[in-house]
């Protein structure tokens, strides 16, 4: 349990740091920190139930995108201001680094395995984002249709 708490705090600090570096605004900082932790929590839950890298990252990407859309409405700010720094802890930097290192050392079999793992992480995050943003867009369109029918 301590390991999970440390990971969630690390994700929060990472998201907060990127939010400060990219000047997203101090009023949004607490919400971005929560978003980073929620995204990593989504990853941990997905990893616990499914293992692997694709499905946990899919769930994490969806979690962050859904949270960003909700916070964008609540705080009247762009969803990307919440999404980008909150998604930073999900970026598969270590596997990409080790993949490039394996290529530089002519270990092509290892590089192919690590490259595949990196691609699955990235596709999972992108797929989760697409699902989250697609559902948010669908919800907006349904609300607009409902508003038109009320008039």
Describe this structure in words.
- The structure is a single chain.
- The protein has 151 residues and is an all-alpha fold.
- It is 85% helix and 0% strand.
- It starts with a helix and ends with a helix.
Layout of strands and helices, then pairs:
Blueprint: H1 2-21, H2 29-50, H3 54-75, H4 79-87, H5 93-104, H6 108-150
Major β-sheet profile = none
Structural class: mainly alpha
Give the % helix: over 70%
Give the averaged pLDDT, no decimals. 94
State the order of secondary-structure elements, H for helix, E for strand. Answer: HHHHHH
Which strand-content bin applies to the residues?
Answer: under 5%
The tally of strands reads 0
Identify low-pLDDT runs: none
Net shape: globular
Distance N to C terminus: 53 Å
What Rg, in angstroms, do the CA atoms define?
18 Å
Q: Total helix count? A: 6
């Amino acid at each position: 349990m301590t390991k999970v708490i440390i990971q969630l705090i690390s994700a929060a600090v990472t998201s907060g740091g990127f939010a400060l570096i990219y000047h997203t605004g101090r009023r949004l900082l607490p919400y971005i920190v929560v978003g980073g932790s929620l995204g990593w929590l989504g990853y941990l839950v997905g990893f616990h139930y499914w293992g692997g890298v694709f499905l946990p990252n899919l769930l994490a990407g969806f979690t962050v995108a859904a949270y960003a859309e909700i916070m964008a409405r609540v705080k009247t700010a762009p969803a990307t201001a919440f999404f980008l720094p909150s998604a930073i802890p999900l970026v598969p930097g270590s596997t990409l680094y080790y993949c490039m290192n394996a290529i530089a050392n002519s270990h092509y079999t290892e590089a192919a395995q690590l490259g595949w793992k990196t691609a699955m992480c990235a596709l999972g995050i992108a797929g989760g984002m697409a699902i989250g943003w697609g559902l948010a867009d669908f919800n907006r369109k349904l609300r607009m249709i409902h508003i038109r029918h009320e008039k």
